[in-house]
């Protein structure tokens, strides 16, 4: 003879199913967060106050491996040395050096 499920056994089954559902949601959120964290690490690094969309603010901090020539090309400012009197030797540029950037108008129109 088949026994009818009692209210207590039905409640336990519902609670058990709910706890499994919550566990699956937590695992999914952890995995999603892990994938997102890895995708952020794979993007090019953002240095100091330089954003991906705006690589050259008015105040620019020289990064490792950069030269005045590469900064000039990147920012569209051919007169970096003239506008920064604290740079005595254009070859003596080092990471952390703060320089003023004034992009040319033609470069601003391209962005």
Describe this structure as you would to a colleague:
The chain is mostly helical and about 110 residues long. The chain has two domains: about 1-45; about 60-110, Membrane-bound Lytic Murein Transglycosylase D, Chain A (Roll). The protein has helices spanning about 5-40, 70-75, 80-85, 105-110, and strands at about 60, 100. The protein has a two-stranded antiparallel ribbon with strand order 1-2. The longest helix is centred in the first third of the chain and has 36 residues, at about 5-40. It holds the Pfam family LysM. InterPro entries: LysM, LysM_dom_sf. Keywords: Membrane, Transmembrane, Transmembrane helix. This is LysM domain-containing protein.
Name the average pLDDT: 78
The second-level CATH architecture of the largest domain is: Roll
The H/E string reads HEHHEH
Radius of gyration: 29 Å
Number of domains: 2
Using the alpha-carbon principal axes, give the shape. Answer: rod-shaped
Q: In DSSP terms, counting alpha (H) and pi (I) runs of 4 or more, how many helices? A: 4
- The third-level CATH topology of the largest domain is Membrane-bound Lytic Murein Transglycosylase D, Chain A
Indicate the low-confidence ranges by residue numbers. 42-53, 106-111
